[in-house]
Design goal:
single chain; alpha/beta; six-stranded parallel beta sheet; Rossmann fold
Length: 145
């Protein structure tokens, strides 16, 4: 199962792209989307807006698709496979800077382009979860702040 989460905000272009990939058969797995405050309602995937916790969804998922927020840190800690797509319209595109810098030290599939999610999902499903070196990560995060 693939779990898609956009947090408490909205990321309609990502949800719509995932829905299109399911519709065209490019994603064959079951997909569940947490759509937050978004307006786009998926037609080809299960969805919900919010739940008190999404940890159970993380545990069940073979792969998580997320934006460039705190979820990335949680997934690295849980050693889960994931794809991150920066939501470039939020707060001065800070997600691109965060994901770019973090990926240099940790190495995980990400993009700032929603259209890249299909190939990134395919690649991520065929590789192990990214590993994290905590002392190295702490140094990388200090550079970001």
């Amino acid at each position: 199962m693939i779990f898609v989460t956009v947090g408490t905000t909205h990321f309609d272009p990502l949800i719509q792209e995932i829905d299109d990939l399911v519709n065209t058969g490019k994603i064959k797995d079951k997909v569940v989307c947490q759509i937050g405050a978004g307006e786009y309602i998926p037609k080809h995937a299960e969805h919900f807006r919010f739940q008190p916790s999404i940890d159970d969804w993380f545990e069940q998922a073979d792969l998580v698709i997320c934006h460039g927020g705190a979820t990335v840190m949680s997934l690295l800690q849980k050693k889960k496979r994931f794809v991150a797509i920066a939501n470039t319209v939020l707060a001065g595109d800070h997600q691109t800077a965060f994901l770019s810098r973090l990926a240099q030290g940790v190495g995980f599939p990400w993009s700032r382009e929603v259209k890249d999610v299909g190939p990134l999902v395919e690649a991520a499903l065929n590789q192990p979860a990214p590993s994290i070196n905590l002392p190295h990560l702490a140094d990388e995060l200090r550079k970001l702040v």
